[in-house]
Recover the amino acids of this structure.
């Protein structure tokens, strides 16, 4: 799946979620929601690493939680970029991929 298709599909899920709960997604919401998801990722990471109590979750559940929270952070990043008109693949190329040539 191409990133553009993924962004559009994630956008649809997010828009339907907001509509079903009756709230408006705006610039602040996108950033705050990303921050919330980063917090949940941090908690999942700490539990998975044995640095926080696992709350009765076994290793497979902790691994699944970590994967799920990574997905949430990734999708919220895509949504934040889309909301602000950022071409994320282009931004990645400008910020990260320029180093490929410099590292050779």
């Amino acid at each position: 799946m191409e990133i553009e298709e993924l962004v559009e599909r994630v956008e649809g899920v997010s828009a339907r979620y907001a509509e079903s709960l009756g709230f408006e997604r705006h610039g602040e919401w996108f950033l705050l929601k990303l921050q919330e998801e980063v917090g949940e990722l941090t908690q999942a990471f700490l539990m998975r690493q044995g640095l926080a109590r696992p709350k009765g979750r076994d290793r497979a559940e902790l691994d699944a939680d970590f994967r799920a929270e990574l997905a949430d952070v990734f999708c919220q990043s895509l949504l934040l970029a889309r909301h602000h008109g950022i071409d994320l693949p282009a931004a990645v190329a400008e910020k990260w991929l320029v180093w490929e040539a410099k590292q050779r």
User: Anything to note?
Assistant: Helices lie at 3-21, 27-48, 59-83, 88-102. DSSP finds four helices and no strands in the chain. The mean pLDDT is 96.
